[in-house]
Design a protein that fits this description.
Layout: E1 12-15, H1 21-37, H2 39-47, E2 55-67, E3 75-87, E4 101-107, E5 111-120, E6 140-152, E7 156-167, E8 172-184, E9 187-198, H3 200-207, H4 211-217, E10 228-241, E11 246-257, H5 259-263, H6 265-270, E12 274-288
Antiparallel strand pairs: 1-3, 2-3, 2-12, 4-5, 5-6, 6-7, 7-8, 8-9, 9-10, 10-11, 11-12
Length: 290
């Protein structure tokens, strides 16, 4: 990804996770076939500084190994497809792998804000004998708003997402992050801290234990947490642009549960406070219209 002398505006992006792998693979294959037919034209449009018409569409996906649920000791795989678009001739903006699905309603060179959504996997007693007797926590769609600001143009980005849960939980989650971004030729490296806050309804659903659950389970005691800080952590990513059209990304994230979440017997007795995630992704860009 080429260096820029001005801050890059955030990409208009839709990131979904996880969805049907077969359907996404077919979409990528069809888009890739159409793009390859006009590969030379696409590269010219994406690198030519002269004004261009149409849009640059970027399709991609990533595989991740991470905790099966908040506080889990065991890890599992997930797939996260993504799509973003920008006007032809507009530089691609930075987006961290753990950003939610977002769409900017207002943006300048340094600030953007809009709507955001994400998917949270559920917790099911059938996946672990030590969860016997505990209520299942179904998958959750979280929707809300985001805002991000480049404190140091093209170098330091700050971001906040505030989301309301639907289905699995009905609490509110706030994720705060900062990323220091460095570009070295075709490489883009980013690293920064993470902080996650949650309301009492979220904490009780994810980390609480009702008296009857404790009786049935036998390993845990009743627990009713309040709201507050859920976790602190660090995330990093390394992207390599093989060409103006194709790039791959390695990423990792570490979170440590804190506060009321860390005190939960679901974490202290059955799970663990330290949460690790690693993954690899790829994306392909092509020109349409114009």
């Amino acid at each position: 990804m080429p260096a820029s002398t001005r801050p890059e505006p955030p990409r208009r992006s839709l990131r979904r996770r996880p969805v049907t792998l077969v359907g996404t693979a077919a979409l990528l294959a069809l888009a890739g076939g159409a793009a390859l037919a006009n590969d030379d034209d696409d590269k010219r449009v994406m690198t030519d500084p002269a004004p261009a018409k149409g849009w640059i569409i970027t399709l991609g996906g990533s595989f991740e190994m991470g905790p099966k649920y908040d506080g889990a000791r065991s890890a599992g795989p997930s797939f996260m497809p993504s799509i973003s678009w920008r006007r032809a001739g507009e530089e691609a903006g930075f987006s961290a792998p753990d950003d939610g699905l977002d769409y900017a309603l207002y943006e300048t060179d340094r600030f953007s804000a809009g709507v955001v959504g994400s998917y949270r996997a559920g917790r099911y007693a059938s996946s672990n004998p030590r969860l016997f007797g505990l209520r299942d926590v179904p998958w959750t769609i979280e929707a809300g708003a985001f805002a991000e600001y480049w404190v140091v143009p093209d170098r330091l980005r700050t971001r906040i997402e505030v989301r309301q849960g639907f289905n699995g939980h009905h609490g509110v989650v706030a994720d705060l992050s900062a990323d220091w971004v460095e570009r070295f030729g075709s490489f883009t490296f980013a690293v920064g801290p993470r902080l996650s806050l949650a309301s009492a309804p979220f904490m009780r659903r994810q980390f609480g234990v009702l008296p009857y659950e404790a009786t049935l389970n036998g390993l845990v005691t009743p627990y009713k947490p309040g709201g507050g800080a859920k976790s602190v952590g660090l995330a990093s990513s390394l992207e390599y642009a093989w060409s103006p059209s194709f790039s791959t990304t390695l990423f990792a994230r570490y979170d440590r549960l804190v506060g009321e979440a860390a005190k939960s017997p679901l974490v202290d007795t059955i799970g663990q406070r330290n949460q690790f995630s690693v993954g690899i992704g790829a994306s392909y860009s092509f020109h349409v219209g114009g």
